[in-house]
Amino acid sequence: MRVIKILDTTLRDGEQSAGVNLNTNEKREIAKQLVRLGVDAIEAGFPIASPGDFQAVKTIAEEVKGATIVGFARATKGDIDAVYEAIKHAEQARIHLFIATSPIHMKYKLRKSPEEVVEIAVEMVKYAKKYFQEIQFSAEDAGRSDLEFLARITKEVIDAGAKIINIPDTVGYMMPREYGYMFKYLKEKVPNSHKALFSAHCHDDLGLAVANTLAAIENGVDQVEGTINGIGERAGNAALEEVAVALYTRKDYYQATTNMNLEQIARSSKLISKLTGMIVPGNKAIVGANAFAHESGIHQDGVLKERTTYEIIRPELVGYSSNKLVLGKHSGRHAFKERLMALGYALSDEQINIAFQKFKELTMKKKEIFDDDLLMIIDEQQFKQNAFELEYFHISGDNSISTAMLRIKLPNGESKEEAAHGEGLVDSVYNTIDRISGIHLKLKDYQIKSEGYGRDAVGSVHVKVEYNGELYNGRGMSTNVIEASAKAYIDALNRIYVKHGLTHQELKKQEISS
Ligand code: KIV
Ligand code: ZN
């Protein structure tokens, strides 16, 4: 059976989703999970984009083993140099460089003639060759490019040293038959096509990203690109879990497989949803909460008699049976550590001690501890960016007029206490945080859901706030939903603080002048 290589771009194209901003620790954790998931290549980011992006790609290249680490670059020397500096220590490194090839992009965006575009592409592939053995070239907006021109540039960049040719449907415009045909055409018409692998990269603007990716597979593509949960620019990218499970379920049709460890899908999906704040819709294929729920009586009856009457995928196949009751208040440190290891967390003794203390505190509030609860504890510990930190809170009033009193540790280490009113509990908490930080954030979205089961389940809050015209995510978890709400807002504040690398005073000044 053919093995289709998987390039995961959750950390690059996925991070381009509006309002998603991951810190380096979160990116490293996602990259490690992607290795467990068995993807072949991880596109870790766009190093030239900002010092934060550079640092995150470098950290992943140095610390995450078991997959090729890919750095993204425009066709310029500066971008290529930055990728080299960021990923030179990776176990296996690849540069992914791109230039647009569609008439619209060449004329209006690049303001270059097709000849000039070919010249730049060839020159930059040759330049990248001095650093990299593996060069992936993308013809941006290939979907709307002239096929003959695509064939020409493909031949030239392969001659120059490109080993992987990516044909992206950048704006999600293609229909499956058209997109599949592009690969057939290029493989047949480009004389040196056998010297390179071909890759598919689809966007979901017309809801066809997965269908187009599968069409490319039918037409001989060697690698497919996408993200977990299908997150990404605008309507997102092809959802890799859907592609992999489609290939598995219909191997009779595709005669193709991947190296993905399907049992890690549920966990990858949850982790990425949690860290990006992009909530997975209940009806989403494979990873939505209802993907395996049979609601109608006729269906339930059928499934009870014979599962396959209405179920084409076993939930266990994609890891949906693991959220079982694992520990309780009598569980010891050893059992706790073992469970964390089974979940893939190798923590130091000191980290285990802190996490175990949190676990014990949680058992006072909650009788049953699930995997999701353990992940919350680790999450809080690993990803905390404690520039601002909630120390104490008290609320009074009802849902119309309420007052909150909070004490927050500031980035300079001092604690500050304030109170404020609001229309409802959460509003009063957010007004108080604004008063303490001196920065007014616009709340654009607020979502709350439970992690795990039961009335004492942990509440998880996601917020989107606007600062200086940009959107930032924040998340917080607690058995107390008001505390979770406060933590989520403070988390967003911390992301702004870390991203801008500014002092608290500078942030305030920036906000005033904006
Ligand atoms: O969609 C796209 O074209 C991309 C790159 C591969 C250029 O994300
Ligand atoms: Zn893309």
Description:
β7, α7 (176-189) and β8 (197-202) form a beta-alpha-beta unit. Strands 2-3-4-5-6-7-8-9 form an 8-stranded parallel β-barrel, surrounded by 8 helices. A 3-stranded antiparallel sheet has the order 13-14-15, with helices on one face. It is α/β, with parallel strands linked by helices and 514 residues long. It has helices at 24-37, 51-63, 77-87, 103-110, 114-129, 147-160, 176-189, 209-218, 240-249, 251-254, 265-276, 297-305, 333-342, 349-365, 371-383, 425-437, 481-500, 504-513; strands spanning 2-3, 5-8, 41-45, 68-74, 93-100, 134-140, 164-169, 197-202, 223-226, 256-257, 325-327, 369-370, 389-397, 402-409, 415-422, 442-451, 458-467, 470-478. The mean pLDDT is 91. Bound molecules: 3-methyl-2-oxobutanoic acid (KIV) and zinc ion. The site of 3-methyl-2-oxobutanoic acid has 9 residues, from β6 and β7.
Topology:
Blueprint: E1 2-3, E2 5-8, H1 24-37, E3 41-45, H2 51-63, E4 68-74, H3 77-87, E5 93-100, H4 103-110, H5 114-129, E6 134-140, H6 147-160, E7 164-169, H7 176-189, E8 197-202, H8 209-218, E9 223-226, H9 240-249, H10 251-254, E10 256-257, H11 265-276, H12 297-305, E11 325-327, H13 333-342, H14 349-365, E12 369-370, H15 371-383, E13 389-397, E14 402-409, E15 415-422, H16 425-437, E16 442-451, E17 458-467, E18 470-478, H17 481-500, H18 504-513
Parallel strand pairs: 1-10, 2-3, 2-9, 3-4, 4-5, 5-6, 6-7, 7-8, 8-9
Antiparallel strand pairs: 11-12, 13-14, 14-15, 16-17, 17-18
Helix pairs in contact: 1-2, 1-11, 2-3, 5-6, 6-7, 7-8, 14-15, 16-17
Bound molecules: 3-methyl-2-oxobutanoic acid and zinc ion.
